[in-house]
Amino acid sequence: MKDVTKFYGNFRALDGISFSVQAGEVLGLLGPNGAGKTTAMRILTCFLPASSGTVTVGGFDVFEDSMEVRRRLGYLPETPPVYPEMTVRSYLNFVAELREVASKDFRRRVDAVIERAGLVDHQMRVIGTLSKGYRQRVGLAQALVHDPAVLILDEPTVGLDPNQIIEIRNLIKDLAKDHTVILSTHILSEVSMTCKRVVIINEGRIVAEDSVENLERQGGAATTFKVALRPASLDWKTCFTGIEGVRLEGEQTDGPIVRFTMALPASAAYDQVFRATVQKGHVFTEITPARASLEEVFLRLTKSEENGSANGSGATEGGKAA
């Protein structure tokens, strides 16, 4: 996506966003409700035209070559597009026909997605009798039946119970071995466990684009370490008191070892602390960098201004949450 803007009337849902996804990558598309995630995915999947900007998938433009783009995409919207009165196999046969799966590959492809989605024992069941978790599996199977290069998943675990979430999460991890995956969600644990890179959208703009690891490290201005120290004397804290900005918290004694959390304002402070401590004969037995949670970073980046956005407070995409 390059410089993509989308208007619904006078409301600007996307404001010049640009990002790319490489083959074989798993990208998390994050943002609060109404941020623009679903609009971006609908443009990517040829359901909506952009007001301006360009979008290509595998080198094909979504507006000029939409059929070629659709052949390369598998899409699972937030509500799985299933027919509840059909059986699982008859529905997947129907989707495979719509997707123009070659006759010589037809049976093989349907059998393959039924097995991969864990639907072998349910393939003759009527979809309307399945649990929500299994309907979600059927939705994934229909997105995969034509073996697309790119898989786009919009809130794939929303409304599922914890066991179902784990099952779908594991399935997505498995799919990532063979497909490029774009995963849209506001459930941050899903991103941490399945994605390598994240694009965060807020109020139609990209506010961050980085690896999950790097974003978590940006949770605060200070660097936090979990420290275990074997002190040589009872006045070991004096090593830290002369260094500006150093904070020690959560002190606990474990035999000869003292454990605590140390926050440092800059990398230079770490060098000062290390030298001062070692010179006094104290011994570090553990120094572990503590990453900020992705939730902390997300909240900081997407926190709205008190007076609302320039687009008007309370507006959503086309009148509903994205």
Can you characterise this structure?
- The protein is built from eleven helices and 15 strands.
- The chain is of the alpha/beta class and 322 residues long.
- It folds into two domains: 223 residues, Rossmann fold, CATH 3.40.50; 69 residues, 2-Layer Sandwich (Alpha-Beta Plaits), CATH 3.30.70.260.
- The strands form four sheets. Strands 7-8-9-3-10-11 form a six-stranded mixed beta sheet, sandwiched between helices.
- Strand 8, helix 6 and strand 9 form a beta-alpha-beta unit.
- Helix 5 runs parallel beside helix 6.
- The radius of gyration is 25 Å and the shape is elongated.
- The C terminus is likely disordered.
The helix/strand series, from N terminus to C terminus, equals EEEHEEEHEHHHEHEHEEHEHEEHEH
The total domain count is 2
Q: What fraction of the residues are assigned to beta strands by DSSP?
A: 25-35%
**Number of helical elements:** 11
End-to-end Cα distance, whole Å, is 18 Å
Global shape: elongated
CATH topology of the largest domain: Rossmann fold
Largest sheet: 6 strands, mixed
Average pLDDT: 85
The fourth-level CATH homologous superfamily of the largest domain is P-loop containing nucleotide triphosphate hydrolases
Instruction: Please identify the structural class as seen in this structure.
Output: alpha/beta
CATH class group of the largest domain: Alpha Beta
